[in-house]
Amino acid sequence: MMQNRLFSLFLPLLLMPLIRVALFKEVPQVTVQGYQLYVKTPEPRPIGYHIDDPAHITATDDGFAINSENFDYPFIQIGAEKELIDVDGKKVDGKIEIRKTPNGKLLVLNELPLEDYLIGLIHGEISALWHPEALKAQAVAARTYALKRQQQKASLNSSDYDLESDIADQVYAGMMDDPKDRIVQEIVAATKGEVLWRNGLYPAYFHSCCGGQTELASRVWGKKESSYSVIDPFCENSPQRKWQLRLSQRDFLNQLKSHGLEGSRIKNISLERYEEGPRNVMVIVETNVATLFIGATDLRRILGYKELKSTWFDIDWSPREIVFTGTGYGHGVGLCQWGAKTMAESGKTYQEILKFYYPKATLRKLY
Ligand SMILES: [Zn+2]
Q1: Distance 233 CA to ligand 1 centre (A)
Q2: Are 50 and 175 contained in the same domain?
Q3: What is the distance in A from the centroid of ligand 1 to the CA of 275?
Q4: Mind listing the pLDDT tens digit for each residue in 310-331?
């Protein structure tokens, strides 16, 4: 705990923070490939205790099995003597750590320097071929977000790792090991240590496309965090601007059934919108037996964040199907990636892009 407090106090003095990313959670098996793989255990072993490549790792009652050899420890670490290692198709730098979950499955973590993490992240979130100023803005936002998550998790004392590697946090694709990495590397280095700041690390959320207006954090997560809704004319030509989701009535009811909605037939669906702003607060579904009030953000979680792309939508329904017609992709808070892309292409710097999406935050160099 003391360490955590020190971490918060001295954050501005950090030289090069490390970050722990969850690569895979609750998987029964993982395959690691790399040049001269070695394993490290909590108990000392001969240095360079090599294992066969590829290494298939599963959980056992007392620890882990790597290929057919047992390692009875609470966790193991695996690295390679040279180059990146491949973990079920994700290329990662540094060591990975494998832990057992309470369900007897595997949690696979990667600890790496934050600046390296940002390089892989930009590949996962957006394309390395985007305008450099848009990528720099993304790098600053993602660095701030990652450090803030780390701080929050440390103060909650809650977890083995800082970040998920999927849509729940930031999309981490691993390293790509190709020339585009060098471009991204230069972009990340150009903003090294820079974060968004307002009485501490700023909650620097970002998303794919706001659809024309960004959203307040409190409306998405219900927590009081500094945020600002801006009218965004820049993402108008984004491919994510307009979308449609069509579900059969049966499929829709089935998905809601697991969340407490009873009934076999829809009688009505209505929407409750925010007074100011285009997004929905609540979706009200009436069936022949019950009425369900469901938060629009919760509905995204249930139907899938990639399917119901935002909470900015209209619904048409018939006895056969439910049609969502929507605008934008993502929660809508903070930086809009497609808007940032257009801003950069029209000559705006990354500082100007950040000022536009985070008007309450200032830029600060931590290391
Ligand atoms: Zn936008």
Answers
A1: 7
A2: no
A3: 20
A4: 999 999 999 999 999 999 999 9
